[in-house]
Amino acid sequence: MSGRYAFSMPEPRQRDGWFRIGSLDMTTTNIVVGLGLLSMVLYAIDLEVFYQGAYFAPFVRQGELWRLATWPLVNAPDIWVLIGLVFFWWVGHQVEDQIGRKAQAVLLAAMTVLPAIIVTVIDASRAPNSVEALQSTAYAASVSLLSLGLLCVFALDRPSAPFFFGIPAWLIAAVFVAIEALQLIGIRAWSQLLLGALVILIACFGAAQRGMLGEFDWIPRLKALSGGPVSPYGEVGSSRPTSTKRFGKGRSRGKPQAGGGSGGSTVVSGPWNMPTGGPTPLEQAELDVLLDRISAGGIDSLTPHEKERLNALSKRMRES
Question: What range does the domain containing 301 cover?
């Protein structure tokens, strides 16, 4: 009875991090959140240095180019900013688990730098010597704008995913975007509005290059940006491939196809004729796909969920 009401925290979920601090995998998303938390400390130490990282279009045009890349790391100590970092941690991992840590790093960098460069080039606002000029000039600080872009990616990729009180993801994203747009239109902050729109567009375009937003086939997919083969799973870690064509070609590790029955169908014979308890034919085929992907793109071409699946299938092979 002594341990009946004992409380224990669950083990942290294993992710594909760049390195580990204790039991925490430092993914791309975790690193950005960690730097955001450190910026709160910098705010207390030196406020002037803190704001040197914010994106402010006129200052960038004066030569302070580092602001193009540092603005998401400028997070003032505020409860809403903290909530924003927590939200970025959650939605960031939803995307990173799908595209991988390297692609996530490139995507976040593109979402940060490219919109700021474009707005800086076309922003013709006056020098910030009035309230009106300040409102019309592009300014950005904190990671919240990146969070909005990743939320749109997640909502377009999984529009029916339930959020608060079962509200679908697409509706949550639509409300967030509408509120942000109405606020900026109200103060006539056109450059700021353009900055946010570009962040969202680049987020969706970049995520589509890595296999997300599959329903939006009108988004151009550039082979040079794909970063390797797209996951063959409808849902990451599932044993059901998205297309049976994946298995239509001969497998290098399986035996040749045996002649089939009526209708031209064939029966594939292979190493899956094992005793009860071993992998099923579909699991063996799934293992073949994962091994092919490793052969083509290395172990980093697999998502964390796929690596877990590979370990589970390998374990079943050894124990059978």
Answer: 244-319
Cα angle 208-210-212, degrees, rounded to a multiple of 5: 50
Name the nearest CA neighbour of 200 among 210, 208, 211, 188: 208
Q: Give a yes or no: residue 8 inside a domain.
A: no
Q: What residue ranges in 190-291 does DSSP mark as E strands?
A: 257-258, 267-268
Domain for residue 237, yes or no?
no
Please check whether residue 49 is in contact with residue 84, taking contact to mean a CB–CB distance below 8 angstroms.
no
Q: How far apart are CA 207 and CA 45, in angstroms?
A: 37
Identify the residue whose tokens are 């006539």.
Answer: 188
Based on the domain organization, do 263 and 185 belong to the same domain? no
Q: Please, what is the angle between helix 79-99 and helix 190-209, to 10°?
A: 30
Look at the chain and report how many structural domains it folds into. Answer: 2
Least Cα distance to 268 among 281, 257, 280, 279 occurs for 257
What distances in angstroms separate CA 313 from CA 24, 248, 291, 298, one per listed residue?
25, 21, 11, 18
Same domain for 216 and 303, yes or no, is no
Strand bridging mode 257-258 / 267-268: antiparallel
Report the chain (320 residues): mean pLDDT per 10 consecutive residues: 46 75 91 95 94 90 93 92 93 91 94 94 59 60 92 94 88 95 89 93 94 88 70 40 41 44 48 54 77 73 74 74
Q: pTM here?
A: 0.68
**Under a CB-based contact definition with an 8 Å cutoff, are residues 112 and 174 in contact?**
no
**In a shared domain, residues 194 and 54:** yes
Same domain? For 216 and 262 the reply is: no
Nearest to 89 by CA among 155, 157, 28, 149: 28
Q: Are residues 87 and 153 in the same domain?
A: yes
- Burial class from Cβ neighbours inside 10 Å (0-12, 13-18, 19+) for residue 263 reads exposed
Q: Residue 264, class by beta-carbon neighbours within 10 Å (0-12 exposed, 13-18 middle, 19+ buried)?
A: exposed
Which neighbouring-strand residues pair with 49? none
Strand partners, 139: 56
